[in-house]
Amino acid sequence: HIDVPAYAKDMGLGTEEAARILRYQVFADYAKQRGGKVLLAHHMEDNAETILFQMLRGSSLNGMCGIRASRQDENGVIYLRPLLDIRRSEIEAYLQLIGQDYCTDSTNLETEYRRNYLRKEILPRLSEINSKAVPHINKTAGQLDEVFDFLQSEAKKAMETLCRGEAERLVLDCQGLQQYHPALQKEVIYEAVAKV
């Protein structure tokens, strides 16, 4: 049990963001004691909700890729999400079939949180328009993830040609940068800024 409202107030964060940070701190602490891996139960609807949320925030291409199936944090903890390709209804049906209880966070039902509004109101309406809306959103995110991976790979190659110096002082060949596609130019600039 963690006092999320107190942490949110101390850090000047919203309750959702504070809860997320604290949740991952608990996961990381626990994982470091037991081998460094955490399996999370994010499913297809979670991913679609995240993608819509990122889109509404005006996210970059990276944000539009949705929830990654795996990632490693700065402490070496690996987070795996093996259920991302499965609908929530399928998971619940399976749990019912095997007689397994599960817990639903009561705050997930409160629509004043933006994510919950997307989950409870928007995704069902999109599914009324097209019953495959959630899988289609996920498929698009997967395609964007492949494009983003390629873009990052090409940006790293371009940086080797265009950048000199260390993190404290990085020199970028702007004339050479103009020879690249605008999407790649932006990614190189972003990576250069992130590096310094």
Give a structural overview.
- By secondary structure, the protein is mostly helical.
- 61% of the residues lie in helices and 8% in strands.
- The chain has a three-stranded mixed beta sheet with strand order 1-3-2.
- The chain is globular.
- The mean pLDDT is 91.
List keywords for this structure.
61% helix; 196 residues; mainly alpha; single chain; three-stranded mixed beta sheet; 5 strands; two-stranded antiparallel sheet
SSE order, as H and E?
Answer: HHEHHEEHHHEEHH
First-to-last CA distance: 38 Å
What composes the largest sheet? 3 strands, mixed
Low-confidence stretches: none
Helix content: 55-70%
Structural class: mainly alpha
**Radius of gyration using CA atoms only:** 20 Å
Tally of separate helices: 9
**What best-fitting shape do the alpha-carbon axes yield?**
globular
- Overall pLDDT: 91
Biggest sheet, spatial arrangement of strands: 1-3-2
Q: What share of residues are in beta strands?
A: 5-15%
Record field, number of beta strands: 5
Secondary-structure blueprint:
Elements: H1 4-11, H2 15-33, E1 37-39, H3 44-57, H4 61-64, E2 70-72, E3 78-80, H5 88-98, H6 114-129, H7 133-162, E4 163-165, E5 170-172, H8 174-177, H9 182-195
Parallel strand pairs: 1-3
Antiparallel strand pairs: 2-3, 4-5
Helix pairs in contact: 1-2, 3-6, 3-7, 7-9
